[in-house]
Amino acid sequence: MAILEVSGLIHRFPDGTTALSGIDLVVREGEFVVVAGANGSGKTTFLRHLNALLLPHDGRVLVDGVSTADDPIRARRTVGMVFQDADSQIVGETVYDDVAFGPENLGLEPDRIHRRVTAAMAAVGLAGFEDQRPHLLSGGEKRRVAIAGILAMRSRVLVFDEPFSNLDYPGVRQVLAQIVALHRQGHTILLTTHDLEKVLAHADRLVVISAGRVARNGLPAETVKGIDALGVREPEASRNGMPLSSWLR
Q1: Percentage of residues of the chain with pLDDT beyond 90
Q2: What residues does 189 pair with on adjacent strands?
Q3: Domains in the chain: ranges and CATH
Q4: CA–centroid distance for 166 within its chain
Q5: Distances in Å between the alpha carbon of 85 and those of 22, 55, 161, 166, 240?
Q6: What is d(CA 226, CA 34) in angstroms, rounded to the nearest whole number?
Q7: Has residue 186 got a pLDDT over 80?
Q8: Residues 6+ apart with CB under 8 A from 247
Q9: How far, in Å, CA of 75 to CA of 64, rounded?
Q10: Which sequence ranges are marked TM in the entry (predicted)?
């Protein structure tokens, strides 16, 4: 069953520059899709259309069968996004307040908010962090706070824009483990990254965007071959002919 259906998506920046030039993509519920592309290829612009932060100038984006242009609020409840800069998503004075922000804006009663926040924090390994100040946490912990905020909204689709950016090795391992666990729990995952080695072995599909178009779309082991021609570094393991299963570590 398709949870995301994008057809003929065109987006132009205010100066008239075309950022997306007719994107077509279908994502099935429960898939793990990695989106790759060179800087300026349109990856982040594309992701922002999935939860109606941006609306198409032409074409359409359907979230669970409903156009984002017709019901952007529904799209934002279904599709949660973790931005590259986790600090930009922090709005609460404490971790608990930050994770509770979304459910509070849904108008839920306090006991339901508490249950959602408690469950979301436990799911990302942040139980006991309720009273900590989020801006003082490590990079990996901030990303997990952002993920918890999305989980508290009960988002079925989780979108991550460069989730490993500026993280040290322990932070990368923490965040990757959470993303993989969320996929195993049934969430649909879309993720952009410049470092395919970290995540590609966990993915169902690799989509490559180049110059605002889908240039490749297929099984990771096949699609990654020769990806350098599209401005994305092909992992050494792929160059050496190692199977994807051997990348897991």
Answers
A1: 68
A2: 32, 158
A3: 2-86+157-247 (3.40.50.300)
A4: 16
A5: 27, 22, 9, 9, 34
A6: 16
A7: yes
A8: 197, 200, 201, 235, 237
A9: 8
A10: none
Instruction: Give tens-digit pLDDT for 92-131.
Output: 999 999 999 989 988 889 999 999 999 999 988 899 999 9
Q: Where does residue 46 rank: exposed (0-12), middle (13-18), buried (19+ CB within 10 A)?
A: buried
Query: In the predicted model, is pLDDT for residue 245 greater than 70?
Result: no
Please count the CA atoms within 13 angstroms of the CA of 124 that sit on its side-chain side: 27
Report the Cα 76 to chain-centroid distance in Å.
13
Instruction: Name 150's Cβ contacts closer than 8 Å, sequence gap at least 6.
Output: 80, 81, 82, 102, 158
Q: How far is the C-alpha of 58 from the C-alpha of 35, rounded, in Å?
A: 21
Nearest by Cα to 182 from 30, 64, 76, 34: 30
Listed in sequence order, the residues at least 6 apart from 139 whose beta carbon sits closer than 8 Å to its beta carbon are: 86, 166, 167, 168, 171
Q: What's the confidence (pLDDT) of residue 173? A: 86
Task: Indicate if the alpha-carbon torsion angle 33, 38, 44, 47 is positive or negative.
Answer: negative
Question: The tokens of 162 are what?
Answer: 């460069």
Residues 17-35 have a mean pLDDT of 96
Residue 249, pLDDT score: 52
Q: Which distant-in-sequence residues (6+ apart) come within 8 Å of 185 by Cβ?
A: none
Rounded to the nearest integer, the mean pLDDT of the chain is: 91
